């Protein structure tokens, strides 16, 4: 028998909740920015991107338009479907499309997003999962990227 665990799901967000994240992001851009590197992997028809949010940092994401797995490891408050939830430890979350999340890291927190793709480059994969790829830290001048592409 399968057991469905609702807390392991990141639901799609309402447009008004996405707008709140955009408002938060506009306020955060006025503050000093913390460089955050991105690890990318394209292998076996999957794209994975991993970031580490340092303790005390608030980070907003782009609007994700594809369902993904979101692997969380750390301690942070995150908006899930319009409510703030504190997560600790390691979680593998089924994350729906149409979400734009904000995270407040209470300790260094690693996030890995994974989805199936036919992309051959990181840019293709980024353009697939969001129409806001120009906002990604991995696209900023001087970005810290570590890329693995196996071709398998």
What's the helix and strand layout?
Layout: E1 9-10, H1 15-28, E2 38-43, E3 46-53, E4 58-60, E5 68-80, E6 83-95, E7 102-105, E8 109-116, H2 122-129, E9 145-149
Parallel strand pairs: 1-6, 2-9
Antiparallel strand pairs: 2-3, 3-8, 4-7, 5-6, 5-7, 5-8
Task: Kindly describe this structure.
This protein has 152 residues and is mostly beta strands. It has helices spanning 15-28, 122-129, and strands at residues 9-10, 38-43, 46-53, 58-60, 68-80, 83-95, 102-105, 109-116, 145-149. The protein has a single domain (6-149), classed as Jelly Rolls (Sandwich). It contains 2 helices and 9 strands; from the N terminus they run βαβββββββαβ. Strands 1, 2, 3, 4, 5, 6, 7, 8 and 9 form a 9-stranded mixed beta sheet that branches. The model is unreliable at 1-5 (pLDDT under 50).
